[in-house]
Amino acid sequence: MSQNNLLPYNTMRMSATTKGIIPIYSEQDVFEVLVEELSPLKIIGGGSNILITKDQDAYILKNEIKGIEVIDEDIDKVLIKVGAGENWHQLVMWAISHDLGGIENLALIPGCVGAAPMQNIGAYGIEQESVFHSLSAINLEAGTTRVFFKEDCKFGYRESIFKNEVKGKYFITHVNYILSKSHELNTKYGAINQKLEDLGITNPSIEDIANAVIEIRQSKLPDPKVIPNTGSFFKNPIVAISILEAIKVEYPEIVSYPVDDEKVKIPAAWLIQHAGYKGIRVGDAGTHKSHALVLVNYGNATGGEMLSFAKTIQEEVESKFGVRLIPEVNIW
Questions:
Q1: Which of 157, 103, 96 is nearest to 126 (CA)?
Q2: Average pLDDT for residues 126-152, to the nearest whole number?
Q3: Active-site residue 127, yes or no?
Q4: Residue 319 is a catalytic residue
Q5: Longest dimension (CA), the chain
Q6: Measured in Å, how far apart are the chain's first and last C-alpha atoms?
Q7: Which residue in 86, 104, 127, 328 is the catalytic one?
Q8: Catalytic residue among 127, 158, 160, 217
Q9: Are 1 and 22 in contact (CB under 8 A)?
Q10: Rounded percentage of the chain residues whose pLDDT exceeds 70
Q11: Active-site residue 48, yes or no?
Q12: Is the Cβ–Cβ distance between 124 and 168 less than 8 Å?
């Protein structure tokens, strides 16, 4: 058991004590913790999607399970098994180095592989569920291992069963993905096409796509090592078309993306910016000057101050547009 303060383990750089932080390097490590009957237990990976608001009266299992291996392949596809403690971006880089496509649009997303299915991470027209095959997890109450296939995970927009019905009950050990040998590039997201055009690339490879995404993300999003943050703090809200039309009366330029015949997705950053909160700072809590969706800790903000600031944004956006923003991050 290592030190018991979570400050080095979360990208918002919140200080909080715990009963202890236990690194997990294998499935056997989890079973040994269960034999000791330590309780309660919480799980952390890269710490890039949590806001810690108080000391944690729990033992923290830090996922350090590593390894990437090919477990099956055919002429078109490769099935890989990835340790849930692997860094997600490093997995993307591994895939590109092996000329395997499917996750290049998800380059530079922070966090560990185990968080990818929990959050159903996505960016630039792709979500991880499009290449997801299955995962292995240990039930922390029963001490049993279970395989979850795609249909078991109940993936939605930044949602899964692991954020809802079984939240905190399973420790994910490995995730299996199906990657492609023949590449179907997804460049429909406008920023990618523009970046490729700027770079003079007309016949892009998966590496070109990843590099374009990396440049876009680095230009828009602050590095958490420089300015502590959790990336996108809120989900982009999905609303009825009637709500969009009501907003358009005053803001005809509002951006939206169709979801189905009845709903659209509105960028949360647009709503926050037009509620007057882009680049706003209250004490050491604020939104980033270049991206209103990113809440940042400018120094010594507490978790409570960050949460209070987030709630103020929610209230202002709802008051102005009739849309309630839902946090994407997990609040501890």
A1: 103
A2: 96
A3: no
A4: no
A5: 61
A6: 21
A7: 328
A8: 158
A9: yes
A10: 99
A11: no
A12: no
Exactly one of 134, 136, 160, 232 is catalytic; which is it? 232
Tokens of 43: 């799980």
d(CA 122, CA 58): 30
Query: Residue 29 CA to chain centroid, in angstroms?
Result: 25
User: By C-alpha distance, which of 239, 259, 49 is closest to 163?
Assistant: 49
DSSP lists the bridge partners of residue 112 as 87
Q: Both tokens of residue 131?
A: 């290449």
pLDDT of residue 102: 95
Q: What is the pTM of this model?
A: 0.85
Give the list of residues 6+ apart from residue 43 with CB closer than 8 angstroms, or none: 60, 61, 63, 168, 171
State the amino acid at position 227 in one-letter form: I
3-class secondary structure per residue, the chain: CECCECHHHCCCCCCCECCEEEEECCHHHHHHHHHHCCCCEEEECCCCCEECCCCCCCEEEEECCCCEEEEEECCCEEEEEEECCCEHHHHHHHHHHCCCECCHHHCCCCCECCHHHHHCCEECCEEHHHCEEEEEEEECCCCCEEEEEHHHHCCECCECHHHCCCCCCEEEEEEEEEEECCCCCCCCCHHHHHHHHHCCCCCCCHHHHHHHHHHHHHHHCCCCCCCCEEEECECCCEEEHHHHHHHHCCCCCCCCEECCCCEEECCHHHHHHHCCCCCCEECCEEECCCCCCEEEECCCCCHHHHHHHHHHHHHHHHHHHCCCCCECCEEC
Cα separation, 124 vs 187, in Å, equals 8
* 93 vs 102: CA distance, rounded Å: 12
Contacts of residue 242, Cβ cutoff 8 Å, sequence gap at least 6: none
Among 85, 106, 1, 6, residue whose Cα is nearest residue 53: 6
**Residue 1: pLDDT above 50?**
no
> Which residue ranges form the domains of the chain, and what is each CATH number?
7-63 (3.30.43.10), 68-180 (3.30.465.10), 229-331 (3.90.78.10)
